[in-house]
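Incident review: delayed structure delivery

Summary: a single-chain prediction request sat in the queue longer than the usual turnaround. Root cause was a stuck worker, restarted by the on-call engineer. No data loss occurred. The affected request and its eventual output are reproduced below so the record is complete for anyone auditing the incident later.

Affected input:
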Amino acid sequence: MLGCLLVTVTPVVAGASRAFTGSLVTSGLLGVVFAGQNLRLYRRRSSPSMPAATLTTIFGGWFMLAPLIYDVGFLATAGTQLGGLLVSAFALYMLVAAIEPPY
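Output delivered after worker restart:
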């Protein structure tokens, strides 16, 4: 969730273009919803949600790719890609944990 929040704030702080800011703020907020749902379900039943982990992984990939498509400045690129890396790493771990059968 921290990575999604970082992605949501970075374009605003960096003064990126309106298109980039709109895209990343919207995607970041949706990422928070899916990451939060995954966290909530994990706490409740001690296993991650495969759909939520999959969608969060996709959002993390988008966060890493978007600055390259929009060609924004260094600060917006670095912050967004760092947030995307955090989101993807943890979401992919949760996805693998959801696929792996229990012991």
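Verification: The CA atoms of residues 32 and 93 lie 17 Å apart.
Action items: add queue-age alerting; document worker restart procedure.
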